[in-house]
Amino acid sequence: MISTIDTVLLRIADNELQVLLWQRPQDSRAYPDAWALPGGWVSEEQDQTLELATCRILEQKAGLKPDYIEQVATIGNRTRDPDGWSMTVLHLALIRFSCSESTQTNTRWISVDAVRNKALTLAFDHAELLDKALERLSTKARYSTLPLYLAEQELKLPELQRIYEVVLGNPLHKRAFRERILSAEVLEDTGIRIQGRGSPATIYRYQPDCAVRLFDRMMQGAMGESISE
Amino acid sequence: MISTIDTVLLRIADNELQVLLWQRPQDSRAYPDAWALPGGWVSEEQDQTLELATCRILEQKAGLKPDYIEQVATIGNRTRDPDGWSMTVLHLALIRFSCSESTQTNTRWISVDAVRNKALTLAFDHAELLDKALERLSTKARYSTLPLYLAEQELKLPELQRIYEVVLGNPLHKRAFRERILSAEVLEDTGIRIQGRGSPATIYRYQPDCAVRLFDRMMQGAMGESISE
């Protein structure tokens, strides 16, 4: 049985979701030169646990250590790998833009929409794995603070709202969004106010090791017709 | 690498959650005679996919076909099996009481509380696996219709409320509970009314293949101080 780990690592840049891809070597047995999710085999010698294996592989392939990683699902069947029965433990990882520069040369960030529109074809069943991880993210964005891990640690609420809107693919009402985020009690007011055109904007901060909190009210109740300011 | 599947199969009986356990054979290499979650190895010959393997193993070990099965997590490390590096794909399955009689002699339903209170010790890390699956169920009960799969297909709302209360470990306000469940639109009014002490109770029905729906408002807003009627 082939047992691997694959990770969908996401960031927000230019107001869009981007996924980190890794180019397979020219001499790969299957899918040479193709773009793929960063992944690899569990090593019985090197890895104590599946979690440590995931971090090791992500660091080796992408040179990155995201603050947030979660398992999405394990996909196993007879057809996904030309070499036979294969299982992969799929992960979703989020990273803030300022920490997302990969140290590896054979990686690139690409817009999720470009992959979905087949502008680029991924190896194996990785396009399906990407869809599964994106679905997990957008579902959790409806009822939790998870998308916070795509934001910088010091942020203004309109920036965070924009991240939620990108993840949900939907505009949100400003006041309803604020109510949900602030009542989740993960943002700390820094006391800093930035004067813009209108009233001063508050700078908030979150801790990178903060737990993902659930909202009392789902985000879909905050979805509106037009983008808020 | 040892790759297995384990399932936490739950039902509600006598107003408590019960888990189906399977007794390991006397000649087992590890944990002989011990009680364990029903589980087994993926068979590259017999199983096309992980999903089919899960159903096959549950049917062989427990003789049961629940309407609802979902993956919870894959747990893998060097210490969980005395034979070395081992991975298990953990599943949560729900079954309604009327379909829950196992055809196998080496199985039994036992109260989840009894396992948690160590009245019975499970093999391997199965007590931890049980906790993980229970946490998934109680989290999802806060924002979705998932516990419906523990109910009979024809039901009264107070019965369903009691199921939620058992799963959440908390009493719920009758009116707030009803608002959430009915607005999720998974229950069909059969038109049948049962006359009891007070006003007649409506009999609802759900389809066993209905999707799990998310609520607009989380269930914790419905949590009260005292058990409703």
TrEMBL record, chains A, B:
Key words, A-Z: Hydrolase
Q: Which domain of life is it from?
A: Bacteria
GO molecular function list: hydrolase activity
Query: What InterPro entries does the database record attribute to this sequence?
Result: NUDIX_hydrolase-like_dom_sf (IPR015797), NUDIX_hydrolase_dom (IPR000086), WH-like_DNA-bd_sf (IPR036388), WH_DNA-bd_sf (IPR036390), WHD_NrtR (IPR054105)
**CDD domains recorded for this chain?**
NUDIX_NadM_like
What residue stretches are annotated with the Nudix hydrolase domain?
Answer: 3-134
Instruction: Output the Pfam families linked to this UniProt entry.
Output: NUDIX (PF00293), WHD_NrtR (PF21906)
| PANTHER family in the record | ADP-RIBOSE PYROPHOSPHATASE (PTHR43736), SLR1690 PROTEIN (PTHR43736:SF4)
UniProt name for this protein: NUDIX hydrolase
Top-level taxonomy = Bacteria, Pseudomonadati, Pseudomonadota, Gammaproteobacteria, Aeromonadales
